[in-house]
Amino acid sequence: MEIKSVTLKVIEANSKDTGRGIIRLDPSDFKKIDVAVGDVVQVKGKRLTAAKVMPAYIEDREQGLVRMDGITRDNAQVGLDEKVIIEKAVCNPARKISVTPLTQVRSFDSKYICTLLEGISLVKEDIVRAKLFGAKTRDFKVTATKPAGIVIIKPDTIIEIKEEKSEFKSSRVSYEDIGGLAKEIHRIREMIELPLKYPQVFEKLGIDPPKGVLLHGPPGCGKTLIARAVANETDANFQHLTGPEIMAKFYGESEANLRKIFEKAAASAPAIIFFDEIDAIAPKREDMGGEKQVEKRVVAQLLALMDGLSSRGQVIVIGATNIPNVIDPALRRPGRFDREIEISIPDKNGRYKILNIHTHGMPLSEDVDLVKLSEITHGFVGADIEAFCREAAMVCLRKFFPTFDFGQEEIPIDSLLDLKVTMDDFLEAMKEIEPSAIREVFSEVPNVNWTDVGGHEEVKNILKETVEWPLKYASLFDYANTRPARGILFHGEPGTGKTLLAKAVATESGVNFISIKGPELLSRWVGDSEKGIRQIFKKARQASPCVVFFDEIDSLTPKRGAFGSSAVTDRVISQFLSEMDGIEELKGILVLAATNRIDMIDAAMLRSGRFDFQLELKSPDKNARKEIFKVHTRKKPLGKSVDFDRLADETDRFKGADIELICNTAAIIAIKEFIKKGRKDHTKFSILMKHFQQAIKKGQTR
User: Fold this and answer.
1) Rg over CA atoms, the chain
2) What single DSSP character describes residue 559?
3) How many angstroms separate the CA atoms of 682 and 289, rounded?
């Protein structure tokens, strides 16, 4: 009988499919090899392995493609864009399999591992991946199967785990394990994989293939992870070096270490050398003093090795740093680092993909909405999202421990399998994780809602339109070619609610919030104050969408040339002006400011394009005062005699802060009276109208 087969081109799998032992084919290919959804097939690359077949996504159909994850590609010994032959397989249930862990841990529970691997088809010498409760995975190598040939793991399969310490290594990283960086990965593959796989193409065309890539971006955004994925996905020899390990104490030894690295790479070409934290060994030479001769020589040696008289052949250098501006400029020219790729903070879609990767093994309850979580994690880099998912799993586990009998020798597997991570667990975990991008200037978002602000209805509506609409209807703003407001300035008498409104904006918008007190940026060192302004706006750009709030801005930007102004404040104002409306566009950032002395602020700050809205917060009218009384007495035990209309009439010309004080004073007067009468039953305590009237009299005498 003729065996039917189909030859297809390999592309990377969706992150949801990693570790599941499945491949995705066009349904028309199912008929060609006579298989149905869920059947086991054998995949022939340089080696034979097995996988279950599932239907391809609609966009992949009729293109001769097969989606295959990194584990299956490893087992078949094929790379991306290479061809594999797929045939229907004869598959038997596995009675017993023996595996060796490839990552070192304290202990393995074979029964638990079996539940995680259930349904995966394999052959001897395959690698299988178990996705654990949290974000971690465990890789195992299959050393024996009973029966031999292609088998599938069933609930009654016995798994024997034999540890061989010599084989321990870090978990394999493939392109599917990186979320939200598709564009950057495509550029790196184009630069690194093509020249290493097809050097003859470049030779025929007379093109010098790229020799170096510099990856830069904030900490935790995936620079080292990309390098690890490139190492695993290419057959090239890979050397991973951190900057400081090259340095040595003896004269000339550091340079010799560098030469040895390049010689070793050239001998085993094609090769990739990855310098992590390259700024440690190649800082700017002009910034070094005379005592740093070793560092200067190391930089010179690296320059010569990367683009000197002798050719380095098929050796590609990847550098990673989060401070690219301190690297020697001679390294950043074509011929050394040909491309500089910025690994940026992920956007909403990127965060959704990263959340999918890190929650793949988690048993999530039905109420978990990853789209919603991706929307509220502004400024989170990949490392933050990994920590966020881990913390959510820990919150779930904390609920389990009080119900667990610690007298038992081991935790029963069934109780662990019943655990589910809920949306509330994720929201609780949010309180523990700060976004890395703005950690230095991170502000705890105050818990103030629009309902906590009495009156100012018109101002609240303007704020909702200015802050929330550009986020919710970004595509409409783009289509209308309209930019949202850059800045809003609150001004008015003290106590009218300027800072309170800023707190409400921070809470209700759900975006990153940076709060700056005006005077704290001023420094005695020349240039330090201006640098502070630059750093704040830089962090805000990285973590956009972001609200930056400057309280008491009049102390930071007084009128230039006026009595009392200085050269420092003049420079600070100039820096502020250029940041808010200079050559570099302020995108995704709203600047809020508050002052009770608008007459003192420099006129250039107040023009359109900087502070588009200047909202005066006036003393509240009767209705507003009534609302403010309701806000500040919301959780207070009030007597039936309290009349808000009468209180509003008696507090003419009182501001919001004054009314808050009256409510507190009334409560204290009531407490004093309750204690003096010797009462102890708290349920009979209440604040009466007379207490408020006494508090108002006190307020009028202030």
Assistant:
1) 32
2) P
3) 72
pLDDT of residue 405: 53
Q: Read off the pLDDT of residues 61-105 as tens digits, 9 standing for 90 and up.
A: 778 888 888 888 888 888 888 888 888 888 888 888 888 887 766
List of residues 6+ apart from 684 with CB closer than 8 A: none
Q: Exposed, middle or buried by CB within 10 Å (0-12, 13-18, 19+), for 599?
A: exposed
Q: Is the pLDDT of residue 406 over 70?
A: no
Q: Which of 595, 626, 619 is nearest to 454 (CA)?
A: 626
The HSE-up count of residue 505 (CA atoms within 13 Å, CB side) is 32
d(CA 648, CA 659): 9
Spatial contact of 529 and 572, defined as CB atoms under 8 Å apart: yes
**Residue with tokens 């109420």, as numbered in its chain:** 367
- The 3-class secondary structure across 565-583, one letter per residue, is CCHHHHHHHHHHHHHHHCC
Token code pair at residue 25: 């084919």
Taking residues 540-553, report their average pLDDT.
80
- Mean pLDDT score across all residues of the chain: 79
493-515 per-residue burial string, b: 16 or more CB within 10 A, e: under 16: eebbbbbbbbbbbbebbbbbbbb
Whole-number Cα distances in Å, 224 to 190, 277, 343, 435, 554: 18, 9, 11, 19, 44
Helices (H) and strands (E) in the chain, counts: 23, 23
- Please report the pLDDT score of residue 105 as a whole number: 60
pLDDT tens digits for 153-190? 888 888 888 776 545 455 677 787 888 888 888 888 87
